[in-house]
Amino acid sequence: MLKGILNYAHYLLEETIQSGEKVIDATCGNGNDTLFFSKLVGENGHVYAFDIQDQAIANTRKVLINNNCSNVSLIHDSHERILDYFPKDKNEEIAGAIFNLGYLPRSDKTVITTPDSTVTAVDAILNRLKKDGLVVLVVYHGHEGGKEEKEGLLKYLLQLDQKQFNVLRYGFINQKNDPPFILAIQKKVLKLK
Ligand SMILES: C[S@@+](CC[C@H](N)C(=O)[O-])C[C@H]1O[C@@H](n2cnc3c(N)ncnc32)[C@H](O)[C@@H]1O
């Protein structure tokens, strides 16, 4: 069976990330991906979960408490500033990241991820990603502002050097109403040129 979008996003990360590693949920929202990552990396690993909305941080905190997760730093800040939380001198290697783009379900649809901040965050993470590490983006583009974000992101990803990255697009092309799709970037080298 072909996997649905969210299942395939998690499947790709499960295939890549090992227990004990450090990962980023760049848009924690209602906490589903944060919980997934928390279980995946286990008690010796760590999850850095970002969101700009109070509601998202509160919702994710509740999920983590209910599931006894103690390996997550919840960060109420924009993912644009991700590297402030990974200072170079600490030399922490990032194994993977997920971005679930768009707006918080059942909430204010005007608070959305934007092309500039998303590209800034992806670029920062790619610089600090370990060799074979993976960044997965679930791209929702049916809402206002979604098309601009999709285009900004594709423009950035299309120019990534194929010697340094593999970039995958996965989605269902016969679905109506702007179905979401996955963009996944795997880093092939230890240090970028
Ligand atoms: C589709 S939701 C995420 C869903 C979430 N992954 C889950 O499992 O429930 C998108 C989230 O991105 C957040 N967001 C928007 N701009 C952001 C930014 N610059 N930095 C971090 N989070 C942001 C929104 O507040 C919203 O909660």
From TrEMBL:
Q: Which UniProt keywords apply?
A: Methyltransferase, Transferase
Give the CDD domains listed for this entry: AdoMet_MTases
* Origin superkingdom: Bacteria
Q: Which InterPro entries match?
A: MnmM_MeTrfase, SAM-dependent_MTases_sf
What molecular function terms (GO) are annotated for this protein? methyltransferase activity
BP terms from Gene Ontology: methylation
Q: Which Pfam families match?
A: rRNA_methylase
Please give the name of this protein.
Methyltransferase domain-containing protein
- Organism, scientific name: Oceanobacillus profundus
